[in-house]
Design goal:
By secondary structure, the protein is α+β, with helices and mostly antiparallel strands. The chain has one domain. 38% of the residues lie in helices and 13% in strands. The protein is built from 8 helices and 7 strands. Helix 4 runs antiparallel to helix 5. The longest helix is centred in the middle third of the chain and has 18 residues. The chain is globular and about 50 Å long.
Length: 226
């Protein structure tokens, strides 16, 4: 068995088993706008802190799909907590498995789960209602399309293993369990405290006085523009 095959199997096991998504047949879409991620605290022992994806005020990150026949063709993530790619520490040892390596694709995928949780709990807003008819398998196909778009447009390096394993992992049983969980919408919503920190970060960026906001500024840790 080739080394590449060994890496794929081990990575799949570390990512809690894989379902099936044909990455090679995924169509290339288009990204537009800007990705902005802010650090708002230490978080718990399982990660590197608490992060919030923040839509750009002028050009929010948007993914346009190019798959005929689908109902959802445009995805624009809203303010949400994120941990990037949810890659276990052991999995991050392999090339291509950084939790932020495919960050725009991860933001799109994370938002689908936030929207799904709020749909399940009957608390979805107008934007979240737009994916009401989406099945779990399609959410996995979307991340494959998004990663393939990043590769095709030269935003990330080509990798023979990581995109296929990640696409399969998000179609697996652990991801499905997260897709169907109840009672998660309330915790998915960004708290008022962290919203104030985000606003303080924007104010700091524009040179406004921070003390009027009554909160420390969140720290901008990642920014990508298309």
């Amino acid at each position: 068995m080739s080394l590449r095959r060994h890496v794929a199997i081990l990575a799949c096991l570390l990512l809690s088993a894989c379902g099936f998504v044909d990455f090679d047949k995924a169509p290339v879409g288009r990204f537009d706008g800007s990705l902005l991620v802010m650090w708002v605290g230490e978080g718990d022992s399982s990660g590197d802190g608490r992060f919030v994806y923040v839509p750009s005020r002028t050009r929010p990150l948007t993914f346009y799909r190019d798959r005929p026949g689908v109902e959802v063709t445009t995805i624009q993530p809203d303010l949400m907590y994120t941990d990037g790619g949810s890659i276990p520490k052991a999995g991050q040892l392999f090339n291509g498995f950084s939790p932020w390596g495919y960050a725009p694709a991860y933001m799109v995928h994370d938002w689908l789960f936030v929207a799904r949780h709020c749909l399940i709990d009957g608390d979805a807003n107008e934007a979240e209602q737009k994916i009401a008819g989406m099945e779990f398998q399609e959410s996995a196909e979307i991340i494959a399309e998004a990663i393939k778009t990043l590769v095709a447009t030269g935003k990330v390096q080509n990798n023979d293993v990581a995109p296929r394993v990640i696409s399969g992992a998000v179609a697996g049983p652990f991801a499905y369990e997260r897709w169907t969980v109840q009672g998660a919408c309330k915790d998915d919503r960004v708290s008022q405290e962290h919203r104030r920190e985000v606003e303080a970060a924007f104010a700091q960026r524009s040179g406004a006085r921070l003390r009027t906001l009554g909160a420390p500024a969140a720290r901008i840790v990642a920014e990508i523009s298309f």
